[in-house]
Predict the 3D structure of the following.
Amino acid sequence: MQGVTVIDHPLIQHKLTLMRDKATSTAGFRTLLREIAHLMCYEVTRDLPLETVAIETPMGPMDAPIIKGKKLVFASILRAGNGLLDGMLDLVPAARVAHVGIYRDHDTLQPVEYYFKAPGELENRLIIVVDPMLATGNSAIAAIDRLKRRGANNLRFLCLLAAPEGIEKFTRVHPDVPIFTTAIDSHLNEKGYIVPGLGDAGDRMYGTK
Ligand code: URA
C-alpha cells in the first residue's frame, strides 16, 4: 500500500502475537508494547539526516556523526499513545513531547478533543505521531489536523495495528503523512474495533474496562 510501511521484523511479529493473546497480563502487555516501540523507533528514524561534530576520543580528534536539525517531537494521542511514547522516549530521551487528548464518542465514533499541549515551533521539525490502533482513522486525522494548524509540516504516523478502512481514510486526508505499522488486520467491526486486533489497547495497557 502506498505510503504505508509494515515493519515485519520477526521479533516484532513474535511480540505482537503475545500482545494479541487475551491471556497476556496487563503488565506483560505494557512491557511488550514498550519493547515493540523500541524496535519501531529504530525503523521510523532510520533515514534521519546526520552531520558531524568535532570531538576528542581518548585516542585523538574525530569528526563524529550526530543527528542533524531541531529536536524531534513525539506526539502521543491519549491515552493509549503513551504506551508507544514511553518506548520511543527510551531511545530518544531528548525528544520534545506533544499530548493530544482525543476520545472517540462510542455512539458516533467521531473524535472529541479534550486536551492539547505541544512544544512551540513545530515548523520544520520531524513530528512522529503515535497511537497503537489506526481503526476508523478519525482520531489520527483529527490529531494531525490540529498539529498542522499549529505549523507542523513534516509528520509521520506510527501505530501498532492498522485496519484497511483507517488506512484508506487517513491517506486520503493526509497523503503527505507516511504510516508505519507492524500489521494490517482484516477489518473493523460494527463498533469500530480492529479484527482480529487485540481489543481495546488503552484498557489492556492500564487494566481498565
Ligand atoms: N481502539 C482500540 O483500542 N482497539 C481497536 O480495536 C480500535 C480502536
Q: What stands out?
A: The first strand starts at residue 4 and ends at 6. Residues 80, 133, 135, 193-194, 197, 200-202 surround uracil (CB under 6 Å). The chain has a mean pLDDT of 96.
